[in-house]
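I'd like us to work through together how a protein chain folds, taking it slowly. We need material for that, and I hope you will provide a protein of your own picking. Go ahead whenever you are ready, and we will take it from there:
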Amino acid sequence: MQALDRRFDAAQALATEAAAIAMRLRPVPGSGAFTLKGEQDWLTEADGTVEAFLSEQLLAAFPKDGFQGEETGKGRDGRLRWVVDPIDGTSNYAHGGARFAISLALIEAREPLIGVIVAPALGDTYAARAGGGASLNGGPIRAAPTTDMRQAIIEIGWNRRRQNADFLALLSRIRETGAMPRIGGSAAIGLAETAAGRVDAYAELHIHLWDCAAAIVLCREAGAFVSPFMDGDGPAHGNPILAAAPGIAGAMREIAGF
């Protein structure tokens, strides 16, 4: 327990420092200071810089822990493994937008234990550890009490790893319930806002571990339903994900199909 407490404190401190680095390197809107790894797959200077900073600092503090980053892959093995998305919402970040975040998680085998998400341009820091609750800027958070889909806001993640027809079908099913769909461009923030009750659910047809590991802890600790992302090939190759306020979880599971 003490070891986990120490890692939780370190995760919050390091994610905050990483967020400051990201803000210093934040592109000027319209500067074009980015490259593309693939279609709508963005890369900036900050992605590599932030990931390297977190890797080095975590190695120094916890040399036996493993490390996995979006940009560098699974670099170190260990019973406990840190999972990092250095800039989640890179398309927003690359254009000078505010909806981006640093996502830092600690997992053991298939169990996420710690999650910290810092969205510096929004002024938001989310933190959670297994069994310890979830917080936003130091205050406790809970998933929304929503029970009526007609009052719900549902964020949807989009990517090129699934067919447009599948995405549009999901969007259509959500709209048919009377819910309001939206796309924010950051899975980490969308999931964290589900934990905080700012939106009522987040759904994405395919997502990678680094995008959601931290948020899984947040959503669970805040009382939201979370689909079994870690099952099967999820940790290695990704899975669908759904997080939802408990009162609409059944409806959302039927709509999403997972």
Notes: The first strand starts at residue 35 and ends at 38. The first helix runs from residue 2 to 24. Confidence is low (pLDDT under 50) at residues 36-42. Residues 71 and 257 are 30 Å apart (CA to CA).
